[in-house]
Amino acid sequence: MSRRRETIRIACGQGFWGDMLDAPVRQVREGPVDYLMLDYLAEVTMSIMQKQRARDASAGYARDFVPLMREILPDCVGRDIRVTANAGGVNPAGCAEAVRDVARELGLSGKLKIGTVTGDDIMGRLDELLGRGVELRNMDTGAPLSDVRERVQSANAYLGAWPIVEALHRGARVVITGRATDTGLTLGPMIHEFGWGETDWDRLAAGTVAGHIIECGAQATGGNCQYDWQHIPDLANVGFPIVEASPDGTFVVTKHEGTGGRVNVQSVKEQLVYEMGDPRAYITPDCVADFTSIRLEEAGRDRVRVHGVKGTPATEFLKVSVSYSAGFKAVGTLVYAWPDAYAKARAADQILRARLERLGLKFDQILTEFVGANATHGPLAGEPDADAPEVQLRVGVRGEDRKAIERFTKEIAPLILTGPPAVTGFAGGRPKVEEVVAYWPALIPKTEIQARVEVTEV
What we know:
- It is a single chain.
- The relative contact order is 0.14.
- Strand 1 (8-14), helix 1 (23-29) and strand 2 (35-38) form a beta-alpha-beta unit.
- This protein has helices spanning 23-29, 43-55, 65-79, 92-105, 126-131, 162-169, 184-194, 201-214, 265-272, 341-358, 402-409, 415-418, and strands spanning 8-14, 35-38, 82-85, 113-118, 152-157, 174-177, 242-245, 251-254, 282-283, 288-290, 295-298, 304-307, 310-312, 317-337, 365-371, 390-399, 423-424, 434-445, 452-457.
- Helix 3 crosses helix 4 and helix 6 crosses helix 7 (184-194).
- The longest helix is centred in the last third of the chain and has 18 residues, at 341-358.
- Strands 11-12-8-7-1-2-3-6-4-19 form a ten-stranded mixed sheet, with helices on both faces. Strands 5, 14, 15, 16, 17 and 18 form a six-stranded antiparallel sheet that branches. Strands 9-10-13 form a three-stranded antiparallel sheet, with helices on one face.
- It contains twelve helices and 19 strands.
- The chain is α+β, with helices and mostly antiparallel strands.
């Protein structure tokens, strides 16, 4: 049952798989928090984990999560901090078992419960779904998934906050999910603590906005921030964001005292527009949040109060993230030095393309970028500086024919002695052929997905 606290502090400790390893440790130890939220999953991450599990049935989850739990579980138990994490990837049960083993080794048997949320992985159901007419059409192109069915590597529906809420209601101190929404990891604790209902749309939307603000970690506390970035203090010691949430849906975004970075209206605004889409309809499994209703105001040093959030009913669908094999690619680079660095790089590109054509090599795409001249802004960069001290030629090719891609990788090095002068930067060796994993977004009726929640005591 909910404890109905008047305020809870939810801290983000990871914005993606590969974020700062000590951030969650610092969130737990450097100030008071009630929940630690850890977001590990991006769309491509699921396909990586699916490949790992194909090689090893015990793999398929964020391995970093287990040693992290070894370090902070005693603190979490001692300070009554609960953890919500989508570290389970395509193997939440395996991840949960690994954490249980760690907890037992730490002597925490009988002191905590671990919740596992599954049901998002529909990889094994694809043929049955397609056979029943659930076409999983690409949201961007309208094409049916059957067009790429044989190349699909992973398929996961985005679950919302309610399975997390169930696990918390049943006493879980650590809740491990597969493909749950980033926002649900924060919204779930709010629903659990404050007893919000399934149709309490404004509050659900407020919790969703809170989750969106902190889901990318330090991006809300000064990291990757355009506004006045030169004067953001001590990013080497950047503090990760914390939400202080209240039952009415209002909340304050802040960070631990004494940490670097900065929380102000501008840093929160920049995170709000990240991956926003239609500002009037930020759609999640739990509700639709209207970002145009959000009100922000400074509430002290490194404190921003968020209020006024409006929400509308959730849709009848869940989003499905599908990854599939889409051929191969390789990228090669060379660096040309002054004088005429840009002219040399352009000439080398023309020579390379002529040789590829002479060899009869066919690619779906050839992309050339001149790093230091136009790689970031493309044609918007205008005419590059003819007096640039150095320019990197970066050429990438993509296609279905792996042999053609492999031959391309052998045509970069010859440019050193058979192309323009003053070239360097090949110390990394021949480019590597990599598989291209493409993203296929789709919708599925909620009636087709049944989340499963298991809570076990260590």
